[in-house]
Design a protein that fits this description.
The protein is an alpha/beta fold. It has 16 helices and 18 strands. An eleven-stranded mixed beta sheet has the order 1-9-18-17-16-15-14-13-10-11-12, with helices on both faces. A seven-stranded parallel beta sheet has the order 4-3-2-5-6-7-8, covered by helices on one side.
């Protein structure tokens, strides 16, 4: 399945198994054919026009040589800039080089000036690259960012780590592709971190090796199919008590807005009743959402209710006391924002949180994750999947490491990488909305894993919906998200297998 994500080590094992079944060079030829077919789609079926192939010294370059040969035979004017190695190429790459020459591909040493390219193909380096791009390769990668034509990367944009989604090196560079065709299995790095800006649209081609997967994937792309079983239409014979209570604990002086945003998200996310338990109890009503019930946090009872702790909670002694009180309550808990910062600053709270058990979801952004792990945010970002896994194992919790391509991790090491959302979510309060919505799903009986998957995906899909309707991404505000989340949620319930459409027009098909 395209949604399964494999590590580079697993891909190498798959490649080795596939090569053992095929004649020498067959796998590279298939890769070139598959890439050429995708290239023709990007050329809108017309091979006419100038195509530039950037080919590196290894087997990824060999894939590019095969592509160039196929396109040249179709009539394309293919020019190829080859960064050849000093040593002799592999048998497969050498054969591909000869095919390209025989097909009439024009080899060049410099980028032809002023050429109106219809397509540029990146075949410089594949998953084997473990160092920063340098010299000519770095210059070519940076050059691709300014192109106004499609850029097709083969397997992975050169310079991007296919496992982590980070650029190789502290001052790394990578090809900026509009499309990537990746071979033998999907890779997590194409969908998180810098991969979100460098891979473009990703297509997976198994090269006819579908049956050789020797290892089970430990990662997957997030999507509605992962939580479809929870998308049940509501029974008519139900009441507000059927859908749980959510308490948002936060709102210290000057930060009530964070708690209100989380509470609104919980309400629009379907919770039966929503309480805003504020550390600064000055706010008595939300005039835009009077259904939210405001309470003084000091006297709030948490047992039997789902708690979203952290939005605007601050770090005062009262916040520490109340968060500690939650450790003794058996309620499902979403720990966000200041709750995570309190835990990071106090080893005793960390130990109690890890030992708490029950339904627990942590929703850190990279800096909060770094504080919990005792490292820096750049270190977290350098390997988002592994640090999410580490947090999930340490706290025996489901962890949502937020950011481009949010990573959702379980304590057993299985992760999901989210694909919905856009830069409009990079705004204050967006995380509070996510936490409140996740709390609403927990209150409605969703297990922590499915609640995190569903909340993250629908939160991103709501932002995508707003942008599609003309709101943002620049200037999109967190306050606009809850109603869009409600719309996405209801449409998904209509989409779920066996569910009735929720509108006369039927559900939107995702």
């Amino acid at each position: 399945m395209d949604t399964l994500l494999y590590s580079c080590d697993q891909i190498r094992a798959i490649e080795h198994a596939a090569q053992a079944r095929l004649p020498a060079g067959e796998l590279m030829e298939r890769a070139g054919q598959a890439a050429a077919a995708f290239a023709l789609e990007l050329l809108e079926g017309e091979a006419a026009g100038a195509v530039l192939v950037l080919a590196g010294p290894g087997n990824n370059g060999g894939d590019g040589l095969e592509l160039a040969a196929h396109l040249a035979r179709k009539g394309a004017a293919v020019e190829l800039l080859h960064l050849a190695a000093e040593r002799a190429p592999s048998f497969e790459a050498g054969r591909a080089l000869q095919r390209a020459r025989d097909a009439g591909v024009r080899f060049v040493d410099e980028l032809p000036a002023g050429r109106p390219w219809r397509l540029v193909v990146d075949a410089l380096f594949g998953i084997g690259l473990a160092r920063p791009l340098a010299g000519r390769a770095r210059e070519l990668a940076l050059w691709t960012a300014g192109l106004d034509c499609p850029v097709l990367a083969l397997d992975v944009p050169s310079g991007l780590d296919a496992d982590t989604g980070a650029l190789h090196g502290p001052d790394g560079a990578a090809v900026t592709a509009t499309h990537t065709i990746t071979f033998l299995g999907n890779k997590a790095g194409l969908h998180t971190g810098d991969g979100c800006d460098h891979a473009g649209e990703v297509r997976v081609d198994m090269l006819g090796a579908d049956g050789v997967h020797a290892e089970s994937a430990q990662a997957v792309l997030n999507g509605p199919t992962l939580f479809a079983e929870r998308l049940a239409p509501r029974r008519r014979n139900s009441h507000k008590g059927s859908f749980g209570d959510v308490v948002v604990l936060g709102g210290a002086r000057g930060m009530a807005g964070a708690a209100v945003l989380a509470a609104r998200a919980a309400l629009h996310g379907g919770a039966g009743r929503v309480f805003a338990a504020l550390l600064d109890p000055g706010m008595a009503i939300d005039p835009l959402q009077p259904e939210i019930m405001f309470r003084d946090a000091a006297g709030m009872a948490f047992d039997g209710r789902t708690v979203v702790a952290g939005p605007g909670m601050g770090g005062a002694d009262a916040a520490i006391h109340l968060f500690g009180k939650l450790m003794d309550a058996g309620a499902p808990l979403v720990a966000d924002a200041d709750a995570l910062n309190l835990a990071a600053a106090r080893p005793d709270l960390q130990e109690r949180l890890a030992a708490r058990g029950g339904q627990l979801v942590l929703t850190p952004h990279p800096l909060e994750a770094a504080r919990l792990l005792g490292v820096t945010a750049p270190i977290v970002q350098a390997d988002r999947l592994e640090h999410a896994r580490e947090l999930a194992l340490r706290f025996n919790a489901v962890v949502v490491l937020k950011g481009a391509g949010s990573v959702i991790a379980r304590p057993d090491g299985f992760v999901a990488v989210n694909t919905s959302g856009n830069p409009g979510l990079a705004t204050g309060g967006s995380g509070d909305v996510l936490a409140g919505f996740c709390g609403a799903l927990l209150a409605q009986g969703w297990p922590a894993w499915e609640a995190a998957l569903g909340a993250v995906w629908m939160h991103g899909a709501a932002a995508d919906r707003l942008v599609a309707d003309g709101t943002g991404p620049i200037g999109l505000t967190a306050g606009e998200l809850p109603k869009a989340i409600r719309a996405v949620f209801n449409e998904l319930v209509g989409w779920a297998p066996g569910a009735r459409p929720t509108t006369p027009a039927g559900p939107r098909r995702w």
